[in-house]
């Protein structure tokens, strides 16, 4: 009986892994979009759709599927909880919280974005998280930008996820916004460990804003297989 139950559990786990919309080849499953949209009704549907399309394009062209997906909706103010982290295999929202933008991206609303070192602006597009480490801000997470011209200098710019005391809703009462970073998606110290542990080691993060130049040029949003495969190959080497 015990052997039978073990086989049943293994079979069920295999079916979930194979049939999960997040791991399927082709186009993003409408079921996945519907499930995540239901779990995060305040997330801009265009941001969610863009994130799923970008992630699916990456997976279709050589990227390893991830268990978690983080989305930052920069069309929302800094005072809103505009960071969402989803468990893709369970199709569940596991965290929603505040996240900072760069000091030169805007005041309460981020409207300017850059890939340039020293710009102190946030970057848009698809990222792949990498290793966690202990740095100036404590426990932090490095990531690689996957979009040439928009975020591919993230590692050179030291754009990382880290804790920051200024990511605090009390700031909004005094200044009308939370504090700002030098371009990093900084989070509250109270949730930093949870955020980093969920996202480290090869998860996808997607930063969205209705920037027309990026929307028209992104190789992931417009799924250009040869360019995407080349980008992913360079990051794997």
UniProtKB/TrEMBL annotation:
The keyword Signal applies. Pfam families: YkuD_2. InterPro entries: YkuD_2. The lineage of its organism: Bacteria, Pseudomonadati, Pseudomonadota, Gammaproteobacteria, Pseudomonadales. This is Murein L,D-transpeptidase catalytic domain family protein. Residues 1-24 form the signal peptide. Keywords: Signal.
């Amino acid at each position: 009986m015990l052997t039978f139950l073990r086989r049943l559990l293994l079979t069920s786990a295999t079916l979930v892994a194979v049939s999960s919309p997040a791991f399927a080849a082709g186009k993003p499953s409408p079921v996945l979009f519907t499930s995540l949209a239901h779990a995060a009704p305040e997330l801009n549907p265009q941001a969610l759709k863009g994130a799923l399309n970008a992630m699916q394009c990456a997976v279709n062209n050589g990227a390893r599927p991830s268990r978690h997906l983080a989305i930052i909706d920069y069309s929302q103010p800094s005072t809103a909880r505009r960071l969402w982290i989803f468990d893709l295999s369970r199709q569940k929202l596991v965290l929603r919280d505040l996240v900072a933008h760069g000091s030169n991206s805007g005041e309460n609303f981020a409207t300017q974005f850059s890939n340039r070192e020293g710009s102190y602006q946030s970057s848009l597009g698809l990222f792949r998280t990498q290793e966690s480490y202990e740095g100036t801000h404590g426990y932090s997470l490095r990531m690689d930008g996957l979009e040439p011209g928009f975020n591919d200098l993230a590692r050179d710019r030291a754009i990382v996820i880290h804790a920051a005391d200024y990511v605090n809703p009390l700031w909004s009462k005094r200044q009308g916004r939370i504090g700002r970073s030098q371009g990093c998606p900084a989070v509250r110290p109270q949730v930093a460990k949870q955020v980093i542990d969920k996202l480290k080691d090869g998860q996808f993060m997607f930063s969205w804003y209705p920037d027309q130049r990026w929307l028209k040029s992104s190789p992931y949003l417009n799924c250009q297989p040869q360019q995407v495969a080349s980008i992913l190959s360079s990051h794997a080497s």
